[in-house]
Amino acid sequence: MDILAQAGLVNYFGKHGLGGGGAGRVDLKPVLMRKGLTKLALYGLGYIRDNRLHQMFSVKGCVRWHRPAETSDCASSSWFNVMLIHQNRAAHSKNAISDRYLPEWLDYVVWGHEHECLIEPTEVPGGFHISQPGSSVVTSLIEGE
User: Fold this and answer.
1) Which fold has domain 11-132?
2) Tens digits of per-residue pLDDT, 39-82?
3) DSSP-assigned beta bridge partners for residue 110
4) How would you write 4-71 as a 3-class SS string?
């Protein structure tokens, strides 16, 4: 993917270098899209080792979210905020990433990496909706697949 992105053949977003010291730091900046009156802020987070990302979410300031800038004709709250995340979500892993780590101003989350298909959006206590597409093929003989 890195080579294809370098060649300009794909728009590979969501991959983040881990800056900062200690736990590390990641800056989540959206890809902004506008068409007519519709405004979409698309955030992406590719896979980071669970224990590392869990630690980063646990330390204030290690995961920084950048909202669209306010302008005279566009409030940052007028954007529809979508998060694409590729991490373990299931509770079987002690360092799985919980939806409680995600900010409440997100509108919709597409959660990749998990094999179980939970495609119907479900609302979480934070107020946003999560869809988990799951694997396109069975990869193991467990009930969730």
Assistant:
1) Purple Acid Phosphatase; chain A, domain 2 (3.60.21)
2) 999 999 988 888 888 889 888 889 999 999 888 888 888 999 99
3) 84, 131
4) HHHCCCCCCCCCCCCECCCCCEEEECCEEEEECCEEEEEEEECCCCHHHHHHHHHCCCCEEECCCCCE
Tell me, what amino acid is at 44?
A: G
**Res 43: pLDDT:** 95
Query: Which one-letter amino acid corresponds to residue 134?
Result: G
φ, ψ for residue 34 (rounded to 5)? -130, 140
Q: Tell me how far apart the alpha carbons of residues 111 and 23 are, in angstroms, rounded to a whole number.
A: 23
Residue 42's φ and ψ, nearest 5 degrees, are -110, 115
- Total residue length of the chain: 145
Other beta carbons within 10 angstroms of residue 143's beta carbon come to: 5
Other C-beta atoms closer than 10 Å to the C-beta of 54 total 20
